[in-house]
Write a structure and sequence with these properties.
With 289 residues, the protein is mainly α. It contains 13 helices and no strands.
């Protein structure tokens, strides 16, 4: 239990660290968004490849039945990472993390509805509250986030939500994640070629991007998959709601950002709404068991 709690904390901190590291690199800016994406995905692919190399038996057992790794999953991973970087040009750490993880959870809920699942009254209430939180966040005020940044982070969240859904059938999460990162390299190279004339970077920015890819992404995702073995799906979903809170604290401590009352209230509405949906699903599961 203590080991699971420790690893869970590390994984959630890693998720939040991606937001903090991206803002540290782009806020100055120490590098451009495209370069951050390129370094992040390449460093993540390298670390995951090295992890696979020490598990030759697992690599040899790869079969066509594995569903977590595919070209479509790699496209989603690339879209998530690229939109994530460009969104953080104009969003602060806490706002970006809230939009991202709110969009992830809502995407997965809507996908469930599309598949024929009927929501209970509690789940509809939660979904309405979460959407209302996003609307409130975007109401005109001095603290209103950039519309373009909001849209880009929504795209990033939707892509990550579908990427997560694709990984549900994986029999070897580490292996599939590694192949998804490796398959994203052609898209990374195209982005590098297209943006090379306007690219700018510094040593410090490259370090932040490499830490985001090699540690917060590659190792963070690996630790999270290890944790999922000891967690129920509902527990895992609820725990992820702590990420925007951790990211907000990281933004205050490391990026020097301030938290507005509007953002705090929007966070309560979005995360509270998602939590109601999760609780509603849990009640149905208990009744059916």
């Amino acid at each position: 239990m203590i080991k699971t709690a420790f690893l869970t904390s590390l994984a959630l901190i890693a998720f939040a660290a991606n937001s903090v590291l991206c803002r540290l690199a782009l806020a100055e800016p120490l590098m451009d968004a495209a370069s951050f994406t390129v370094v992040r995905l390449l460093s993540g692919a390298l670390v995951l490849f090295l992890l696979l190399s020490i598990q030759p038996r697992a690599a040899a057992e790869r079969t066509k039945e594995d569903t977590g790794s595919s070209w479509s999953a790699s496209v989603l991973l690339f879209v998530y990472a690229a939109a994530f970087s460009y969104a953080y040009i104009s969003l602060d750490t806490a706002t970006g993390a809230l939009i991202l993880f709110g969009a992830v959870q809502i995407t997965m809920v809507l996908k469930t509805i599309w598949s024929g699942y009927r929501l209970t009254a509690l789940e509809w209430l939660g979904l309405a509250l979460a959407f209302s939180g996003f609307v409130y966040l975007m109401l005109p005020s001095a603290n209103t986030p950039s519309l373009l940044g909001f849209i880009l982070m929504l795209i990033s969240g939707v892509a990550w939500g579908f990427y997560t859904l694709k990984g549900h059938g994986s029999t070897s999460p580490l292996r599939d994640t590694a192949y998804n990162f490796i398959r994203s390299i052609p898209f990374v190279l195209v982005l590098l070629w297209l943006t090379m004339p306007t690219a700018h970077y510094s040593f410090e920015g490259i370090v932040y991007a490499a830490l985001s890819g090699a540690v917060a992404s590659a190792l963070g995702y690996t630790i999270w998959y290890m944790v999922l073995v000891g967690l129920a799906a509902t527990q895992a979903a609820v725990l992820q709601l702590f990420v925007p809170i951790i990211a907000a604290l990281g933004g205050v401590l490391f990026v020097g950002e301030a938290l507005s009352v509007q953002l705090i209230l929007a966070t309560i509405m979005v995360l509270g709404g998602v939590c109601l949906v999760i609780v509603g699903k849990q009640k149905i599961a208990i009744k059916q068991s």
